[in-house]
Amino acid sequence: MERKIFVKIVSGLLLTFLLTGCLKDNMGPDVPTSKKVMILNQGNFTEHSASISLYDEETKQIQNRAFETVNGRSIGATVVSGSLIGNTALLVCNYPDKIEIVDSWTAIAFSEPITEGLASPRNAIATTNRIYVTNWDYTYNETPSGWWIYPDSYISIYDIVSRQFIKKVKVGTDAEGLLIIGNKMFVATLEGVKVFEIMGDNLNFMTVLRPQDTEGGAKHLVVDKNFMVWASFPGTGVVKIDPNTLTIKTVVDVPVDSMDGYIASDPMRGKIYTYNTTFDQNYSPVEANIYSVDTSTDQVSVFFTGTYFYGVGASPYTGNVYTAEVSFTSNSVMKTITPAGIPDGSATTGVGTFRFLFYLKGEGLD
């Protein structure tokens, strides 16, 4: 338990696993639990077709459009990310900008969504008393190649109980993923992985970590079984960072999605998963692969192949890997794969399936 105490929060997924793991150990063998997945379907940007699906890893039963069913309304936005703390899910949305706070077991919205202090929000995590959200802001510069970058990106901070906006702190350009270890906050930005010391509601800049000869920025952050931080750098691969010395330990050359750059971690089995889809000149998908990185040996292997992937997730309970043959005009088809790389089933989900949040449901887990 010493390592669990050391980590205040490493990410929504890993924190939930550690907390529920401790609770399960204390409940005894007779308390039944179910392994659940909240599936985020981003929807089409122009249609507000985002939705939530709830999936049982054991029975393989799925409930689509769960949010609409229990709340009597649609999400009415594009979901861009999500995270868990306990049995609470934070759903980060654009168009309009908001954070829906829902019960992960039922998809019931706890309260009115957070809207204050948001400007193109990207990712959110929570500690015992604060919610932190990366935002691109609306100010942008156009690069010579025609891409937009957002130089005024910031983190908005909220009280976790009242949901009240406290302040915002500028952190660089194109802020994306974030995580917290001890009193250090790691933020993925175009400049690299920026590290801040958390002092109350102040974020004091410590350093920025970026591998040499890297053109793009950092996108997402996860933690492995040894509590090393891994950052995705599309075009370079994944980078292992020691959170104590704040140094780069290794750079692993592995394909990473060039747009989203999302990666997933299975800390218990020592794996990092990336995904990448290649397209032809008409932007039609040609092939998609999920890649596995061994966090001990840095060995890379092709884990699973399909046609068009838009996300990846790894269950900390079963070790199964989740992805989807994605569609933005109709329902996607979720795929589950065993740790050995063997297909283990599929299910129809929603439009633009891309994120998977894992949790235990059972008596005493609240």
Please describe what this structure looks like.
This protein has 366 residues and is mainly β. 7% of the residues lie in helices and 47% in strands. It is built from 3 helices and 29 strands. The strands form 8 sheets. It has a 4-stranded antiparallel β-sheet with strand order 3-2-1-29. Strand 26 (321-325) and strand 27 form a beta hairpin. The longest helix has 16 residues, at 12-27. It is globular, with a radius of gyration of 19 Å.
CATH topology: Methylamine Dehydrogenase, Chain H
Strand content: over 45%
Please state the second-level CATH architecture: 7 Propeller
- Please tell me the total number of domains: 1
Cα separation of the termini: 20 Å
Main β-sheet: number of strands, strand sense, barrel status?
A: 4 strands, antiparallel
- Percent of residues in helices: under 10%
Category from helices, strands and their pairing: mainly beta
Work out the radius of gyration.
Answer: 19 Å
Low-confidence stretches: 1-31
User: Outline, from the CA principal axes?
Assistant: globular
CATH homologous superfamily (4th level) name: YVTN repeat-like/Quinoprotein amine dehydrogenase
